[in-house]
Amino acid sequence: MPRTTIGRMPETGGVRQVKSAARTVELLEVLAARGDRPARLQELADALEVPRSSMYALLQTLVARGWVRTDVTGSLYGIGIHALLTGTSYLDSDPRVRAVRPYLDEASTTLGETVHLGRLDGRDVVYLATRESHEYLRTISRVGRRLPAHMGALGKALLAERPDAELTEGPYEAATPRTHTSRESLAADLAGVRGRGHSVDREEGVPGIAGFGFALRYDSPAQDAISCSVPVARLTPEREERIVAVMREIRMKVEAAVPAGGGAVHWR
């Protein structure tokens, strides 16, 4: 689930934040985190610890501008279509996402499996592109979805690019009985990732699904990773070997096509 800044102001380099702007962003983050569960006015007022009247005025402003939507009764609120348009603009404007997409197509065609591109954002991984297999539909990896980094192949590939000292203390949230919930367990897994050069997720994020993740090292430390997901029911040792070999080759192609810097704007 996305982390919001409710109840505290993040560091801004000594510049005082505009409170109304911060509150607007926090509201959008809360609505986005709820997914398909619309919220009532009082729920949102309580979540952001603001007066009901102030929350109502903010909601009406955002509804009028398309950032928030409401039902026919005006009592339920959800994220609006302008959030989608802004998110799409982010993907379209990112040169690295554009550069990686053809290689996701190549990997998906070659393997016939679902492949992903994700980016580390704090303690989460955000899915930036996905190519779905036609073999199964059981996935949580739609574009824009956030997943705690410790739960899956993408996140573990990226965490392994960083020193264990950066890991937070547990216990960590569990998605399945196989999810790493302690710092010690996760650190041991990441040591294996560094030794192999790729991560392995065996039903840690989704029951019945295994994943293999590869950090893209055009940044240091890597911010992006690619992965391949496959149902464990048809994952043989030979199939796993084939997936790893193809994904390693795809990583090499991506890193050659997207050199460090690459003339792109260096966002922070």
Describe the structure.
- With 268 residues, the chain is of the alpha+beta class.
- Helices cover 41% and strands 18% of the residues.
- It has eight helices and nine strands.
- Strands 6-5-4-9-8-7 form a six-stranded antiparallel sheet, with helices on both faces.
- Strand 2 and strand 3 (76-79) form a beta hairpin.
- The chain is globular, with a radius of gyration of 20 Å.
- The two termini are 22 Å apart.
Characteristics:
268 residues; alpha+beta; 3-stranded antiparallel β-sheet; 8 helices; 41% helix; disordered N terminus
Overall helicity: 40-55%
How many runs of DSSP E, i.e. beta strands?
A: 9
What is the makeup of the main sheet? 6 strands, antiparallel
Number of contiguous helices: 8
Q: What does the radius of gyration come to?
A: 20 Å
Strand content: 15-25%
Give unreliable regions as ranges.
Answer: 1-10
User: What's the SSE pattern?
Assistant: HEHHEEHHEEEHHEEEH
Question: Would you tell me the overall average pLDDT?
Answer: 86
**Shape type:** globular
Strands side by side in the biggest sheet: 6-5-4-9-8-7
| Structural class computed from helices and strand pairing | alpha+beta
- Oligomer description: single chain
Give the end-to-end Cα distance, rounded to a whole number of Å: 22 Å
Quick structural gist:
With 268 residues, the protein is of the alpha+beta class. It is 41% helix and 18% strand. α2 crosses α3 and α5 packs antiparallel against α8.
